[in-house]
Amino acid sequence: MDATGKVIWANNNEIQTASLKGVVAELGLKDGERVPLPGRDLGSCEVFPQKLKHNANGRFVVICGDGEYIIYTSQQLRNKSFGSALDFAWSPTGTGDYVVRESPSKVVLFKNFAEAKALKPAQCTAEGLFGGALVGVRGPDCIAFYDWDELRFVRKIDASVKNVYWSDAGDLVVLASDASFYVLRYNRDAVAAAVHLQLPDGVEGAFELVHEMAEKVGSGTWVGDCFLYVNASGRLNYYVGGEILTVAHLPTKMYLLGYLPRENVVFLMDKTKAVTSFTLNVVLLEYQTAVVRRDFASANAILPRLPADQMDAVARFLESQGFKEEALQLSTDPDQRFDLAVQLAKLDVAKEIMMARAATDVHVSATDMQHKWKQLGDLALNDGNYGLAEECALKAEDLSLLLLLYTAKGDLPGLSRLAALAADKHRHNVAFVALLLLGRIDDCVALLVDTKRLPEAAFFARSYSPAQIPAVLAAWRQDLAL
Questions:
Q1: What is the average per-residue pLDDT within 208-216?
Q2: Each residue's pLDDT tens digit, 93-104
Q3: Quick check: 275 and 266 in contact, CB under 8 A?
Q4: In the predicted model, what is the mean pLDDT of residues 181-196?
Q5: How far apart are CA 238 and CA 257, in angstroms?
Q6: What secondary structure, in 3-state letters, does the chain show?
Q7: What angle do CA 18, 22, 28 make, to 5 degrees?
Q8: What tens digit of pLDDT does each residue of 116-153 get?
Q9: β-strand 14-19 against 6-11: which pairing, if any?
Q10: How far apart are CA 430 and CA 400, in angstroms?
Q11: Contacts for 420 with CB less than 8 Å, ≥ 6 apart
């Protein structure tokens, strides 16, 4: 698919085309629905097609197969050029600029459909060929890059590469291998300054490793600084700033055709040539791209254009990039806002979130609320905010924390309330300690008897309350007789 939404495919030697521009909006299709593809016959080609690819502006299309390539006009399938080629790659700029791999030892550059330069790669055997900002020649366990001007050597990277995807700006590239993909940043200025020297190892600093992601890429394309791809598990994902976000889970194995930014739609095709579409908001991608580039002026200008239902996704992305303050301001998800407030040590904000949620969310899990109150209480205790720690412990029913607080402060009324609360909650160990600290020995004995801890009650009475021994022994004998 080219940048305007024109799709071209082959049925044996018959070539067909269709336009996907405006189809989704016109038919009101939902995500995952099949897109009608009324194909138009362009004609037949002379070779059996194994690869079809539009050039940069979509005016021409190349068909490769049987060790040959033929370049046609994309509208009428008129022959423009042809030749021998095991592989073919278009230039990202020139209309008639391309490179072909004629053999494992020869690569030929064409400019304006005329041969301009032939190269015998010295760095590796040419087993594959890729286009983009640089010409990529794949070897058995490496890939070598050359410029488009004169096929001058730029840099060799030792990696087993299956495919190469360049961003439109030409400053980022994905090298996809069998089990992962590498995101590299291309330093165009360093290459321009040193490529003419033709050093044996190429240009030092031509590439910088940005991220290595443990995902196998089936097919992909760049949208700004976001890499949109289909992985081996059948998920449509996109990478941005070191994070991988899932757009959709695909029902079958699909190939990514492309993305139309004006329509916010990505198109995929399966092996039966059925096309499916999914919505992906270009404004969100632009915002994420601006944040990754640290262009905060542009990001702030884009932010008002984002739909309200995307704010939680934006907040999660900002959190992953380390901008937790901004994420807290944008998020509408109570769980996420609470976690961010805790991470930022904003105890009052976290408390407000919890109070508001308790008052409005009737379906909230009591266990989840208790866990969050306990988490906030522990944080307040570490921060020395004992009043908030006590309040959180009461709401979380964290009796151990209350015992610690009241004991440390010498709060006798608090210990008395805790003893009653612990007894009601059947937390007899806490109740016993609280009663013991209060000096209520008789109540301690009574608690042990009530909980059938009669041997302990007898020994405790023997040590601390001899007057209770007859009653405890009588209860013990009665229990043994049962």
A1: 92
A2: 877 899 999 999
A3: no
A4: 91
A5: 15
A6: CCCCCEEEEEECCEEEEEECCCHHHHHCCCCCCEECCCCEEEEECCCCCCEEEECCCCCEEEEEECCEEEEEECCCCCEEEEEECCEEEECCCCCCCEEEEEECCEEEEEECCEEEEEECCCCCCCCEEECCCCEEEECCCCEEEECCCCCCEEEEECCCCCEEEECCCCCEEEEECCCCEEEEEECHHHHHHHHHHCCCCCCCCCEEEEEEECCCEEEEEEECCEEEEEECCCEEEEEECCEEEEEEECCCCCEEEEEECCCCEEEEECCCCCEEEEECCHHHHHHHHHHHCCCHHHHHHHHHHCCHHHHHHHHHHHHHCCCHHHHHHHCCCHHHHHHHHHHCCCHHHHHHHHHHHHHHCCCCCHHHHHHHHHHHHHHHHHCCCHHHHHHHHHHHCCHHHHHHHHHHHCCHHHHHHHHHHHHHCCCHHHHHHHHHHHCCHHHHHHHHHHCCCHHHHHHHHHHHCHHHHHHHHHHHHHHHHC
A7: 115
A8: 999 998 888 899 999 999 999 999 889 999 999 889 99
A9: antiparallel
A10: 7
A11: 431
Token pair for residue 204?
């030092």
Q: Which amino acid is at 144?
A: A
By mean pLDDT, which of 74-78, 190-194, 214-218 is the weakest? Answer: 74-78
pTM of the model: 0.71
